[in-house]
Design brief:
The complex is a heterotrimer of chains A (363), B (466) and C (357).
Chain A: E1 12-19, E2 28-35, E3 40-44, H1 51-59, E4 66-71, E5 74-75, E6 86-89, H2 101-110, H3 116-129, H4 145-157, E7 163-167, H5 175-192, E8 195-200, H6 203-209, E9 212-217, E10 220-225, H7 227-232, H8 237-242, E11 247-257, E12 260-265, E13 270-275, E14 283-288, E15 294-295, E16 304-313, E17 317-324, E18 327-335, E19 348-352, E20 358-362
Parallel strand pairs in A: 3-8, 3-9, 6-7, 7-8, 13-20
Antiparallel strand pairs in A: 1-2, 1-4, 4-5, 9-10, 11-12, 11-14, 12-13, 14-20, 15-19, 16-17, 16-19, 17-18
Helix pairs in contact in A: 2-3, 2-4
Chain B: H1 16-55, H2 62-66, H3 68-75, H4 85-101, H5 105-116, H6 120-132, E1 135-138, E2 141-144, H7 145-152, H8 165-183, H9 187-193, H10 200-209, H11 216-221, E3 224-226, E4 232-234, H12 242-273, H13 276-291, H14 294-305, H15 310-317, H16 333-356, H17 362-369, H18 374-402, H19 406-411, H20 419-429, H21 433-457
Antiparallel strand pairs in B: 1-2, 3-4
Chain C: H1 2-19, E1 23-27, H2 30-48, E2 52-56, H3 62-70, E3 77-81, H4 82-90, H5 111-114, E4 124-137, H6 148-151, E5 161-164, H7 170-177, H8 185-189, H9 192-203, E6 209-212, H10 217-223, E7 229-233, H11 234-244, E8 248-263, H12 271-281, H13 284-290, E9 297-298, E10 309-310, E11 313-317, H14 326-329, E12 333-334, H15 337-356
Parallel strand pairs in C: 1-2, 1-3, 5-6, 5-7, 8-12
Antiparallel strand pairs in C: 3-8, 4-7, 4-8, 4-9, 10-11
Helix pairs in contact in C: 2-13, 4-15, 7-9
Classes of the chains: A alpha+beta (363), B mainly alpha (466), C alpha/beta (357).
The structure holds adenosine-5'-triphosphate (ATP) and magnesium ion.
Amino acid sequence: MLTATNTDEGFVVFDRVQKSYDGNALVVKDLNLDIAKGEFLTMLGPSGSGKTTCLMMLAGFETATHGDIRLGGQPINNIPPHKRGIGMVFQNYALFPHMTVGENLAFPLEVRKMGKSERDEKVKRALDMVQMGEFAGRRPAQLSGGQQQRIALSRALVFEPQLVLMDEPLGALDKQLRERMQYEIKHLHERLGVTVVYVTHDQSEALTMSDRVAVFEDGRIQQLSSPDDLYERPENSFVAQFIGENNKLSGMVTGIKSGVAEVTLDNGSKVSALAVNCEQGSRSTLSIRPERVTLGGPKNKNTTEAEVLELIYLGDHIRCRMNVHGNEEFVVKVANSAGHTHLKAGEKTKVSWLAEDCRALDA
Amino acid sequence: MTDTSAPIVTADGTPLKKKLDQAMFRSRRNAFLLVAPLLAFIIASFIIPIVVLLTQGVYDSSFRKQMPTVATFVADWDGQGEPSEEMMQAALTDIVVGLTIDRSIPTKAAVRINREVSGATSMIKKLIRATGKWKIEYEGKEQRLSDVFRNMEDEDDSGVTLLDESERRAIGVTLAKAVIAQEAPVKAKMIKADKKWADIKYWQAMKVASKAASPAYLAAALDYNYSHDGEFQQRDEDRRIHVKLFWRTLEISLIVTLACLFLGYPIAYLLSTLSVRSSNLLLILVLLPFWTSLLVRTTAWIAMLQAQGVMNDLFVVFGLAADDDRFSLIYNKTGTLIAMTHILLPFMILPLYSVMKTIPPSYVRAAKSMGATNWTAFWRVYFPQSVAGIGAGALLVFILAIGYYITPALVGGQDGQMISNMIDFHMRKSLNWNLAAALGMVLLVFVLFLFWIYDRVVGIDNMKLG
Amino acid sequence: MKLKALLLTAAATSIAATASADITVVSWGGAYTKSQVEAYHKPYAAKTGTKIISEDYNGGLAEIKSQVEAGNVTWDIVDVEMSDAVAGCDQGLLERIDPSILPAGADGTAAADDFIPGTILDCAVANIVWSTVFAYDSTKMANAPKTIADFFDTSGFPGKRGLRKSAKANLEMALAADGVATADIYDVLETPEGVDRAFAKLDTIKGDVVWWEAGAQPPQLLADGEVAMTTAYNGRIFNAVASEDKPFEIVWDAQILDFDLWVIPKGAKNKDAAMDFLAFSTATEQLAAQASWISYGPARKSSAPLVGNYATKPDLAMGPQMPTSADNMATAIVNDFEFWADNGDELNERFNAWLAK
Ligand SMILES: Nc1ncnc2c1ncn2[C@@H]1O[C@H](COP(=O)(O)OP(=O)(O)OP(=O)(O)O)[C@@H](O)[C@H]1O
Ligand SMILES: [Mg+2]
């Protein structure tokens, strides 16, 4: 087959991919995604948003209903899974229970008809890579969750695939171990330079590990960008809400001037916000991160009355829930720094934020 | 820090170990109490009857009780030479006493001897008929012996015999003495009644029968004769049947097990991959054989498999068989194999299915992602994990197959019979329960042996029934 | 005086109780049980008010033995084959029957002379004579077999043969086909050479045999075209012909006559009522009545003249259908139960070994 190989095209390409299991509903809707070689890309999204489905289509266990998936410029729709050369880490690790750790690792090498000495050498190296050298003779059931995870990881890497897919690999671990493994995976990625497509619904995991994050919702990518952009510059209200903590205010855009939108809130008051994703005369949702709100502060256009409803002491900061513009869930983070303002529940105060920290997004 | 060598104690000072034992004892006792009713039920309704039945295969004291004088005599007899007058008198005594107590006692003994040598039944019956005509002085008048015996069973109005057993036994002993005193020497008379009395082999048979605990039936179950001098000889070629049937049972059971495995494995796999709804539907189809009566099934098999049946008609239509030379699919081993595979298939599918259902698809996917072809992924990864189900299913099917008898009896013809058909024959037709028990015992030992091998090779804990 | 009256009333009530007790009558089922229900049960119930519970079984003594040995006998009277009647009596499983309870024949003959000789045993009284015959489908046989030798001649009369899976009857028929006179059959079979000879004859057709076990099978095998000829119980073939209009023909040559008898298991709960039923049902009229429902011959000679026509086909005379009719008796072999009591174990064993070979 002759396809014009686009040189600036990414290593993995989803080109207008759609997927339906039952012929009624689309689980993946018009997915376009370019993944560069060596990139660590994370698919993040709520449960049921189609992340695993995308991964399975890439691995070859599901076929796309419509569209192309290309790997290294070649369409792979008709290549069976075992010829795709993609390493994979499953959520439950899928370590073969009837084989020892060593045999598990040797399996992909064996099916590639690799000689025994070379095989042993590679298995040993792969185990050392995850500090599991002594465990080659054990059965998976005799390992802890974290150990199993590492074996699954090294098994997916041992045959040196160029692309590794990981479907919520840390989902079953406790918080501490999860954080440690996040770093280990990240370091391995940096060291080996493989391309990783990673699936998770834990946003902090996505933010710490990835080069880029694709936020999925309802079978669509809502935003694809670097972790800091995702947090600081969400492009729509779903992303703003899904990533990190967020305060929402909704109202009507009455005018947009040089990138700043005038918004009349539902209680009648007016605020100005960065016009990101809104049109004059339509409704908009304003998004303000809690840490960008200041108490009292310089009087500007966005200064307003607030009533303290609840205070939660969190050590390094204090979460303060207030009623702002009629929104009783409005949260402000007050740093626990020397000489910070002491508030009491029921107290009335003023809060303010900069127009560029308040993003006017879609309704 | 406490001294580590001192026993650890609980808060109230009792040693920890003792306390733990107490706690364990309580939970063990509770567990025992929970299973006790079932245990009692199983012991009473299953284990005891089986043990009682099986002992009949090696222990049969009936002859000693029916012909005690003969039994004592032949115990010390060397089994050689002509039957003597003394032996004849012993037999006559036992028969007269037996008839006095209950007229079926000597014939019962005859049935036992007849199992060793044909002809003993008529030998004893002819003697009974002959002696019945002898006259004897009893209760002051001359009577025929047969009338004396009949009157022993006279009953009162409420159906209770007038004389109880010990009274009758006492009368019998006196009567026997009188008969012998009157008729001696009896040897010639007995031989005249039936010439078989002169034949030494019947006396040797009585010697065999007189041993209560004896391997005679076990020997018969293995096609051997246990002779009066304690030796085993293989039976005549044309009477050897059991060993051949044991092998055939093994062969049929193995073939059926393999056939069930080959047919059931793909179905179980399919079931395990389908949605719950469709797998339930399929499961109903799989279980259908359980819900139809044996009669309906048999009729269906006959309609399908007989020479003029559906299968053969199809073969003829497709030119696979000539119309006048159709396949014999029923009333032979083929019929037994087909029918038993059909009936036992669910016992293979269900354990396989229940194991396969628990194998997540991610294993095979993982294998494929690592470069394994479909076959390698199946053989190296899926299959080993389904072995537990194969073990359970195969063992279940095999053990059920070994004991099958109704199906082979109906569709097995002459070469599709199994050892259980023989056991059934001796239970229901020949009434030789002792031999049936001995056959059952051999079968049981055989199955336990296979179980042991299975445990050594596969491991019994490697089995998952569901 | 008072005591005696009391005892008398007690006895009277107990007799009344036994007379009206339900009795359980066990037989072979199907058309055969139906013939007994029509000829024995209904008239007996009408006469005495006794309720009769009819149960089916498959023959053999196993159930009786289990019941007797367990001391819980639920069957009161059972219809058994001759060999089982003898074996059951030998093994003490059956009640002895006092022949004086049997009524004289309708023509006044004493019971002992009226019954066919050898059919009143210590523990059993015969009701019918049946026979093992061979039969064929007349629409499928170009030339009709006439003798037992034809049955064993698979080149002259090609096709499969149906035989009962047991030594009994087969060995006798094999010898008859081999030219042994019917009167000498058991003398020959008594010798080892005779047994060899019978098995050798069976060997000649072994490859063509379909073995049957239940009496219902042979007519079915014939109807399905599975066999060209089959041995069968004569009543089963008759029924297929008379009530299902099957084109079957019976060959009476070398038919093996056998008897079915009533026996009462030892310790039967309603022994007296069972005895009464036994005497009633083996009376001349009852036996004759049964013969109009099924083609088995009455065990009493006095019944023969009373045998009428087939109950559901009034123009079909039953007389010639009886195994005991003079024409059919010419070459009949009467089953020698004493021979089988002696040699059954050994011959069955050998037969089973021969089958498995
Ligand atoms: N085999 C299947 N057949 C039918 N529908 C399916 C199948 N697998 C997934 N779906 C549906 O497709 C949608 C997306 O599923 P998918 O597994 O891709 O979600 P996900 O984003 O991985 O969710 P999670 O975070 O919970 O793993 C869901 O609505 C799911 O119900
Ligand atoms: Mg998922």
